[in-house]
Fold:
Amino acid sequence: MRTRRGLYYPRADVCLEKKVVKITGFAGDNMGCRKRRRTSPESIGKRDFFYALPDDLVIYVLSKLSSTARCPSDFANALVACKRLNSLALHPLVLSKASQKMFAIKARNWSESSRRFLKDCADAGNIEACYTLGMILFYCLENRESGASLLAKAAINLHAPALYSLAVIQFNGSGGSKNDKDHRAGVALCARAAFLGHIDALRELGHCLQDGYGVRQNVVEGRRFLVQANARELAAVLSSAGAASNKFMRSWLTWSPHPNLNLSHRHPAVPGCPLLSDFGFNVPAPEAHPANRFLAEWFSAQGGVPGPGLRLCSHIGCGRPETRKHEFRRCSVCGAVNYCSRACQALDWKLRHKAGCAPVERWLDDEGDGFVGNEAVNGNDDVIAES
Structure:
């Protein structure tokens, strides 16, 4: 069969090149490792099956590989295989199909080549690369303008996490002053992300409606959104565990007719998803996005302090830092934890903070910070009330 480049697919009876193996040592003796002689099809006068494949077929295979990669090394191994794979793997079509997990770069491995690779993927139209690089630039490298631009590019292409991240930026006025907060814009972005199925955005929207935060207060509608967020969370966990055995599912999915009871004594080794306890379920916590894991690792390497007087979001699955002092809201009970959003506060409250939240009087005795009742006198007027 003839291809567009004028090549023919080789027949099954085409003889493949015989691989010559020679045992040599480091100095040329016979005590070394096994080494394969590199030969090209042109040098031996025979047709090689791989080199006879047309480029469009190899690009299609590499696109499938990049879209199903489970870690960066799955794709990196193809880059170092040979010169042809290295050149074709960087084709814009391949980079545009790259999966979310292919960008799960460790913070300790960050380099200029990593940044350039993410930039190439973003230029190829990969919205996951736009979001990941945008988060890194905005929060870690403090390049606010470029980071926000990449997040906006992903949001325009209906990337739900990017829409939610922009909503958090609008709620907090991140990268600017306190007067740069735009609650209405944050609610609009949350509503769009919730429509696309983002659970944290739906939960944030529910809290905004309950509290009248950036929108007209509607307690009943807000509570309905919060219940819907719990239901979507349960459905997402069940669908992701569809391939698991029934025995394994029973080990982490439990139900009690009394949702308020603590089931941790029955399954002490199973980390439970916090908000599903409202329905009496105990399931594994959802996996954090690679961008959030990168942020957490990046600032953990700096001792957990993003800058002088700045704090990290206390929810372990977030990783967002403050861009100015007193940007995040503190717990109104203890004042010891702070959150970038209501969604992070709700997740962390039932995950761990509910058991360790101390009264504000005890916190004042230990730290001496400026909380009076449920209000702050140190310039941070956004206080979170636990429930």
